[in-house]
Description:
Elements: E1 4-7, E2 10-13, E3 18-19, E4 22-24, H1 35-39, E5 46-48, E6 56-57, E7 69-71, E8 79-80, E9 92-94, E10 115-117, H2 125-131, H3 137-208, H4 215-245, H5 251-259, E11 263-264, E12 280-281
Parallel strand pairs: 4-5, 5-7, 6-8, 7-9, 9-10
Antiparallel strand pairs: 1-2, 3-4, 11-12
GO cellular component, one term: cytoplasm
Coiled coil: 151-183
Protein name: AGAP007632-PA-like protein
Amino acid sequence: MSPHIVENGEKINVRDRLTDNLLDLSLMNVSEIPVDEIKNLRRATVLDLSNNRITQIKSNFADLIQLTVLDLSKNRITSICDDFGLLTNLRRLDLYSNQITRLPLTFGRLKNLKYLDLQNNPLHAEFKNMVGLCSDNNDCLNAAKRAVHFMKQVEKNVVEARIKERQEQQQAAQLAIVQLKEEKALAEGHSTDDTKSDKIKRKRKQDNTGNPVNSEQKESATIEAGGGKKKSRTDARKSSISFVLQRNVRKSDFEKLVSESVIHRSSSIGTADGFRTEVVLAGS
Length: 284
């Protein structure tokens, strides 16, 4: 960037305005501060920008960390950048007769500030009373001390409030995540219960309507259970009859089997010592 500024249509070399450590840019009808040009002049620790048309102190102004004295009086300044507190080498600040309504939050970081003039600015009445007048050098020294201390406390309170707010937001976000997980788990639990309930209902429906395992099966099972006894008795009789058929049966024994209805009398002809006959189960 060119090391020139324009005054009344003429280019002026900023370096030419430097005397020792004082850079005098007052009364030059300046509306924009030539920060880049000033920054290269490391020897310029005292900057006079009074009696110009400056309306803003922009963020790049904080690059001028070499400044120890700054005169911005009698301009049209309405706002000062939030990074202004980075000018920690600043010892004297003149903001007399501007349109400043508040100081930047970082103003309390100006730990080396010894002189401050805020007269003739539309500051809040309470703040103005707290800082006090700057009618003489001693008043301006006290004004600097009070303003720095007050703004330092303000920044601390704001930072703590922001941290608390951030923590509350994080806690709210974590709580929301936990609630979502609980709702999801609850929904999955209901889904599982519904599935089990549906299975039970389907099984009951099958049992009551179309499932072969019904009353007929139960009846059949009962019959089979009862029939087991009959079958066992029949098997016993068959085995008895089988025993009879395996040898000659005496007539008296044969008659006894008939009388007990174990066998029917056969038409077979008996022998002298008994019968060899084809017997039939009683009731068959």
